[in-house]
Amino acid sequence: MSSTIESAEHKALRTAVAALGQRYGREYLARVAREGGHPDELWADAAKLGYLGVNLPEEHGGGGGGIAELAIVLEELGAAGCPLLMMVVSPAICGTVIARFGTDDQKRTWLPGLADGSRTMAFGITEPDAGSNSHRITTTARRDGDDWILTGRKVFISGVDIADATLIVGRTEDARTGRLKPCLFIVPRDTPGFGRSVIDMELQAAEKQFELTLDEVRLPASALVGDEDAGLLQLFAGLNPERIMTAAFAIGMGRYALARAIEYAKTRQVWKEPIGAHQAVAHPLAQAHIELELARLMTQKAAALYDAGDDMGAGEAVNMAKYAAGEACVRAVDQSVHTLGGNGLTREYGLGSLITASRVARIAPVSREMILNFISHQTLGLPKSY
């Protein structure tokens, strides 16, 4: 079956997840965020139905599917107004990396919990002075006997307060070349020397953002994920699903906003006809719908390539999907708020806060400019400026 035509199983999954999302909705998530809580009830229900671990191997308690299925779950929850950000991090990035490259012991220890939602894992790559330049990561790992010692800082790391551990990207020295190479380490939340402080964000979300400090954090040899010499390959095995899931997050948010605007445009009457009868209102909403559908198509292609094991082919597609979804989301939210006028900025309609939230899709986990750089160099073969 072509990845552009959704299978009956995928359609059924969408319908089932949409029904779960409708039981919670935007008001639930907004209330949880206002009260400083976490969407534990929705997380538990999604886990019970097998949605959180749908991409993880069956032998470790998962659904045996791929990122395509996990992306559907996140998109449909987003379209219902209650996306779960930790899905991007815990099952998609960390679960994928451990399932593909972890030791048997790491798989046994972590995957069943990540699959049934009873355990979560955060992901730490971004640094204050490195931004999108992963070659400037300064968190270093050095050997001390059989142990590893980690030192460094991370920033904008989601959900560290609720995660049982954080998958930290550090750099170790290559014995042959002396150069630093990336490696991934599982750091349990209460490890001595592992500190966190919350970042005060304008964004209203249940999942808080943290700055992390690793001050001579001592880890056993078993904390290293996979092969020390294949760190880059393992890192990108996690970053590709992250981009696919970010695209799904953005598409869901755009669909949610658009649905509210369409509902409003059908019933809001100022003159003789509802405002949706006017092309100046109708056409931009139709355009937003088209752009979201196109972004979803690219996301499906990216997921199909990744799930088929084509890491190189997926690299281009996941970046395109994330770019398209981010742009479509921002425009859909903007047009939806505009359609409601002043009502678009009231708490009652719940769209105003999405103006800030939709920007995240353009910024994280990689900016649109860095994606354009990637396509310029990798796809078009143009020379680098950096």
Keywords:
386 residues
Structure description:
By secondary structure, the chain is α+β, with helices and mostly antiparallel strands. The protein is built from ten helices and seven strands. The chain has a four-stranded antiparallel β-sheet, with no helix packed on it. Strands 1-4-5 form a three-stranded mixed β-sheet, covered by helices on one side.
**Residue fraction in strands:** 5-15%
Helix content: 40-55%
Poorly predicted segments: none
Average of per-residue pLDDT values: 94
Total strands: the figure is 7
Rounded to an integer in angstroms, the radius of gyration calculated over CA atoms is 21 Å
Task: Write a short abstract of this structure.
With 386 residues, the protein is of the alpha+beta class. It has ten helices and seven strands. Strands 2-3-7-6 form a four-stranded antiparallel beta sheet, with no helix packed on it. It has a three-stranded mixed beta sheet with strand order 1-4-5, with helices on one face.
